[in-house]
Amino acid sequence: MVTIRVMQQKDIEQMAAIESKCFSQPWSQKSFEEALSHKNLCFVTAVSGETIVGYCGLYMVLDEGYIINVAVREEYRRKHVAEDMLRFLISEGSKRKIAAFTLEVRESNKAAVGLYRKLGFETSGIRKNFYEKPIENAIIMWKS
Q1: What residues have CB less than 8 Å from 80, skipping those under 6 apart?
Q2: Where are the domains of the chain?
Q3: CATH of segment(s) 3-143
Q4: CA 54 – CA 50 distance, rounded (Å)
Q5: Residues tagged active-site
Q6: pLDDT tens column, 6-64
Q7: How many Å apart are CA 32 and CA 114, to the nearest integer?
Q8: Which of 12, 73, 96, 110 reaches 20 to 30 Å from 37, CA-CA?
């Protein structure tokens, strides 16, 4: 069983390990440690027993939330972990008076684009060559 909760200090080492496997330009462990004390950042984790199986973050500015670092361990993908985390994260943001949420996603990541659409996000534009390693456009999506 997977539960979703707000990130804790004890999660950081496992989060950094997942990050290094999921992203070509990963955050460091120190970056996650700094995020814990940043009042405008909220990370949530998906936990199975003592194992972090996924996480995602929300950077908040005024009434807008920028969703960052959606990551799930490979063996837990396609099991609704990302969806459950995002629903929890959006709920946390709404409690903090966030009225609109945005994110970027690789054009080639059809599974993620489908999930975001399912959650009510709509495409609003393209950021040319936004991603590196490999270079790829990002789809900009918003949910109000």
Answers
A1: none
A2: 3-143
A3: 3.40.630.30
A4: 12
A5: 104, 116
A6: 999 999 999 999 988 888 788 888 988 888 888 899 999 999 999 999 999 999 999 99
A7: 27
A8: 73
